[in-house]
């Protein structure tokens, strides 16, 4: 079942009326709290995840699934946006990662800020950067775990295993 509000929004951004959104149209549909559009890299990642019929475009059913996915991430984002600024700063991100069960040192958060603050300021994550950061961490953690036999956060792998893992997951 497609939510009628979602269907209406889909129709508004489907300017070409072809029943499917390309990357530019989807980018128009996905907004951060400050009304900026999602970064095009995040739009591309969303298409890759939700384009089930491999058309490189997003139809209404795919859009509906994407919308539900982002809705649950939005709740998570709002929960960790402690000062209600509509963006996630380094302190909020650090708390979020801890509460989501990750154990990182203080050196790791700046790496994330650098990469996922698409404004280039490395100071705040908008919703798109927050979602992207957590998706990547989830994926790479899952890819790392089979190598981490003692479950202590260290692993040995060959150069080729490392490359394969990164290429498959980023
Ligand atoms: Ca599709
Ligand atoms: Ca905030």
UniProtKB/TrEMBL annotation:
Classification via CDD domains: EFh_PEF_Group_I
Subcellular compartments: Cytoplasm
InterPro entries noted in UniProt: EF-hand-dom_pair, EF_Hand_1_Ca_BS, EF_hand_dom, Peflin/Sorcin_CaBP
PROSITE patterns for the chain: EF_HAND_1, EF_HAND_2
Keyword Cytoplasm set for record: yes
Keyword Calcium found: yes
Keywords annotated in UniProt: Calcium, Cytoplasm, Metal-binding, Repeat
Major subcellular site: cytoplasm
Domain of life: Eukaryota
Residue span, EF-hand domain: 68-103
Protein name: Oidioi.mRNA.OKI2018_I69.XSR.g16520.t1.cds
Originating organism: Oikopleura dioica (Tunicate)
Lineage: Eukaryota, Metazoa, Chordata, Tunicata, Appendicularia
